[in-house]
Amino acid sequence: VQLQASGGGLVQAGSSLRLSCAASGGTFTHNYMGWFRQAPGKEREFVASIDKNGVSTLYPDSVKGRFTVSRDNAKNTVYLQMNSLKPEDTAAYYCARTRRTTTAREAGVYDLWGQGTQVTVSS
Predict the structure, then answer these.
(1) How many helices (H) and strands (E) does the chain have?
(2) Residue 71 C-alpha from the chain's centroid
(3) CA dist 17 to 32, 87, 105, Å?
(4) CA trace torsion 45, 35, 6, 52 (10° rounding)
(5) Phi, psi torsion values for 21, nearest 5 degrees
(6) Are strands 45-50 and 57-58 parallel, antiparallel or unpaired?
(7) C-alpha pair distances (Å), 30 with each of 83, 99, 105, 119
(8) Which residues pair with 90 in a beta bridge?
(9) What is the pLDDT of residues 69-122, one digit of tens each?
(10) Which of 36, 38, 51, 76 is the Cys-Cys partner for 56 at CB 3.0 to 4.6 Å?
């Protein structure tokens, strides 16, 4: 299975973007999924996690109320809706799969990662 993230771009502060993460060569419909981001010179940061049914989600305080993770298992795709974007949200965003059966914020529990999609927010 490979994960492909897309939807990044250059936007102004206050704008919205929706990232997508699609699977190829397999499915992740039975897996919990996560989104992370990494800015240059910084550690990878947890952004969102969602259970296999799209019911339970987890966010850090830095994005809570602005970002929403969702999934469409029929399309084998996970989304990250990002609203009210700030310059500090600028980073490469990655989707990842975990075999855990809980939402998780630790990068180490995710075993499959997609390539990043760049989000740049100008002030």
Answers:
(1) 0, 11
(2) 11
(3) 22, 13, 22
(4) 170
(5) -135, 115
(6) antiparallel
(7) 27, 9, 18, 28
(8) none
(9) 999 999 999 999 999 999 999 999 999 999 999 889 999 999 999 999 999 999
(10) 51
Q: Which residues of 3-27 are buried (b: 16+ CB within 10 A; e: fewer)?
A: bebebbeebeeeeebebbbbbeeee
Tokens of 2: 């490979």
Residue with tokens 């060569």: 25
- The pLDDT tens digits for 43-79 are 999 999 999 999 999 999 999 999 999 999 999 999 9
Spatial distance between the Cα atoms of 25 and 6, rounded to a whole number of angstroms: 17
Can you read off the two tokens belonging to residue 34? 């996560």
